[in-house]
Write a structure and sequence with these properties.
The protein is α+β, with helices and mostly antiparallel strands and about 325 residues long. It is built from 11 helices and 14 strands. The strands form 4 sheets. A 5-stranded antiparallel beta sheet has the order 9-8-7-6-10. The protein has a 4-stranded antiparallel beta sheet with strand order 12-13-11-14.
């Protein structure tokens, strides 16, 4: 029989793996009696774990949420994921959790097995985030909004528009979406009777929580895609439509999720719907696809590309007139 401490860890790991366990199944996995399982469950409760149990033929055990956070068991992949996530959070876009993330990361890295340190170090030293630059959001705001969405409770908040105007909104919160630069809330606006996207850094929740609601299907069935579609174009000074003379799959491989919406037209062409605050940046970005394209909008991009083409052609050396019998490419 395993030592009690080792057996408790194995029992805890089993309880975390699936929702419900019968006492007989746990006893079989641990090679002990059901009575020992009951005693071990009591020990876990003394350590702060909430283990719910039911009696009878279909009785069993379920790990629940307690009043305090007890120690957690993580497998190798989970430990690496948490370490990388905490490091990102320490330099992320949520106000007030940087120091907390660093403290949690320090505790985790002190206890990481030696075999996992190379994996964490490799990810830390060979990756860099280009997602910064956006405004930060108060952590309490995110947790309040997320809790309301999770519980399907209406949410009221003060909102500052892009023009500086202030309003109070009453919504059915659906999903928080992080684009890499900003946090957005997709919600059903009860006053306007339509879906709206709100920047999380511009809203301030107002207590108390509203009545519960039945969740609606997001536009197109995909909340993140709907938010990204609006963020890519509507918030930019220039909205652009580019027709690529290449399959959508080829363009998608050379694009990024936040760069624009790719619309397949046929097997050989597609359109990119995007937005930008710099036509020069967009022109540079389009050249990186390395496939033929046609600019459908905006007209200002037509003019810029014409100017750039003239400038680039003028930068080429004038062709030297070849002498009789000399190849034009000879030197």
């Amino acid at each position: 029989m395993l030592e009690t401490s080792v057996r408790l860890l194995r029992l805890l790991s089993l309880l975390q793996q699936r929702r419900d366990w019968s006492g007989a199944d746990l006893a079989a996995r641990l090679a002990v009696t059901t009575r020992t399982v009951r005693n071990d469950v009591d020990r876990l409760r003394q350590l702060g774990y909430q283990v719910d149990s039911t009696t009878g033929p279909a009785g069993g055990y379920r790990l629940g949420a307690g009043t305090a956070l007890p120690p957690l068991l993580l497998d190798d992949d989970e430990a690496v994921a948490v370490a990388v996530g905490l490091r990102a959070a320490a330099a992320g876009s949520v106000t007030g959790i940087e120091d907390v993330s660093l403290r949690a990361l320090t505790k985790l890295e002190r206890t990481l097995p030696a075999r996992l340190r190379p994996r964490v170090d490799a990810l830390r030293t060979t990756t860099v985030s280009a997602a910064g630059g956006g405004p930060t959001v108060d952590a309490d705001t995110l947790t309040t909004v997320a809790a309301a969405a999770h519980r399907h409770e209406r949410l009221r908040f003060e909102y500052a528009g892009h023009d500086g105007s202030a309003s109070v909104r009453d919504v059915e919160p659906h999903t928080l979406v992080y684009t890499g630069r900003r946090w957005y809330l997709l919600a059903w606006d009860t006053d306007r009777r339509d879906w709206r996207t709100f920047r999380a850094d511009r809203l301030r929740p107002l207590p108390p929580a509203g009545p519960r609601f039945v969740p609606r299907e997001p536009p197109g069935g995909d909340a993140a895609a709907h938010v990204l579609r609006g963020v890519r174009s509507l918030v930019w000074p220039y909205q652009a439509r580019i027709r690529f003379h290449a399959p959508a799959a080829v363009v998608a491989e050379r694009s990024t999720p936040t760069s624009g919406e790719i619309i397949p037209l046929d097997d050989a062409t597609c359109e990119l719907v995007t937005g930008t605050d710099s036509l020069h940046d967009l022109a540079t970005y389009l050249s990186k696809f390395d496939v033929p394209f046609t600019v459908l909008a905006p007209p200002e991009l037509h003019d810029l590309l014409h100017t750039l083409a003239t400038r680039y052609l003028a930068a080429l050396p004038s062709p030297r007139r070849s002498r009789p019998g000399e190849s034009p490419h000879s030197t």
